[in-house]
Structures are given as C-alpha cells and as structure tokens.
Amino acid sequence: METQALFSFRVTKPFVDETTQSAKLAGLSRSEYARRAIEEMNHRVMRERIAVLSKQLSAQSLAVNEALNDATEDGLHG
Questions:
Q1: 27: which DSSP letter?
Q2: Which of 15, 42, 56, 77 suits a disulfide with 11, CB 3.0-4.6 Å?
Q3: SS3 (DSSP) at 2
C-alpha cells in the first residue's frame, strides 16, 4: 500500500457545502470526491501537455522533412 500524506487547503464555506452535497449525490465521502476531482484535473493537465508537445514535435518533424526534401531537390539524387 502506498504511503499516504495529508493534503490540506482553505476554501470558502459555500464551496465546502457544495462539495459535500455533490459528494453525497455521487455516493462518495468528501475526501474521496476531492481526490477524484484532483486526479481528474491532473490527468486533464497531462493530456493537454502531451497534446502541446505532440504538436510541437509534429511541427519539428515537418520542418525536418521539408529540409530533407529541399536537399534532395537540389540535385543530390539522380
């Protein structure tokens, strides 16, 4: 089992009330509800970061391919 640590932060009373109600509706404890929400946000941020990096890599690959095509068009092939 993973070692657990305490994660604490301040929120407004209305936020607590809304979160408590949402957790109850989902059939979860408030802690489990918060864990899942944070985990979901972490995954979303990671997916967005991967998408940005993928786009950058794709652009770099395209630039390299275009440079290679330009080089072969300069008479380097038969």
A1: T
A2: 15
A3: coil
**Interior/surface letters 42-67, b for 16+ CB within 10 angstroms, e for the rest:** eeeeeeeeeeeeeeeeeeeeeeeeee
Closest residue by Cα to residue 9 from 34, 27, 26: 34
> What counts of helices (H) and strands (E) characterise the chain?
2, 0
CB 30 within 8 A of CB 20: yes
**Interval 2-22: pLDDT, tens:** 899 998 999 999 999 999 999
Higher pLDDT among residues 29 and 68, named by residue: 29
d(C-alpha 5, C-alpha 64), whole Å: 46
Please give the structure tokens belonging to residue 43. 């995954």
Give the whole-angstrom CA distance, residue 36 versus residue 58: 32
